[in-house]
Design brief:
about 160 residues; alpha/beta; Rossmann fold; His_Pase_superF_clade-1; Mito_Ser/Thr_phosphatase; hydrolase
């Protein structure tokens, strides 16, 4: 059975220059994007073996906001701060049981680069957006199965509360 790598780009953050880059916090909109992402992934029935996050404040805030809806703890993973690549992604995914799902929370341009390296797809990875990649075997190649923008995640999250 295939493993899946799910990638959540951090939500909207304070502007560049407002404080050191690693310390930039989520805006209220970014906090809502994080909560919506977690709720939407829960509505979709995706159960994660682990959630890894960049230690940068905005990514960690996104991960903890999303994790509340997913019932999982968050693990800091320094390589997600900068330079995260397909090899590192495959290392994390390989630790999951067969059929397992891993969620990573981090940054651009790393995430669109990983999507391209693993699938060949070029994506516009929005802040607060999610991509899901199915990985078969040990080839290091995958298929982009999901790409959701924050607006779509919010709609999915709201769909569960209206039922």
């Amino acid at each position: 059975m295939a493993r899946q790598l799910w990638m959540l780009r951090h939500g909207e953050a304070e502007p560049h220059g407002s404080r050191p880059d690693a310390d930039r916090r989520l805006t209220p909109r970014g906090e809502q994007q994080a909560a919506d992402a977690g709720a939407a992934l829960a509505v979709l029935g995706i159960e994660f073996a682990a959630i890894f996050t960049s230690p940068k404040v905005r990514a960690h805030g996104t991960a903890t906001g999303a994790a509340q809806g997913l019932g999982k703890d968050v693990v800091l993973h320094a390589p997600l701060a900068s330079g995260f690549d397909a090899d590192e992604a495959l290392t994390l995914v390989s630790a999951a049981d067969d059929g397992g799902h891993i969620l990573v929370v981090g940054h651009e341009p790393d995430f669109s680069g990983v999507v391209h390296e693993l699938t060949g797809a070029g994506v516009d990875f929005k802040k607060g957006g999610v991509a899901g990649i199915r990985l078969e075997g040990t080839t290091g190649r995958g298929e982009l199965v999901t790409l959701l923008r924050p607006r779509e995640l919010a709609a999915i999250a709201r769909s569960s509360s209206s039922q």
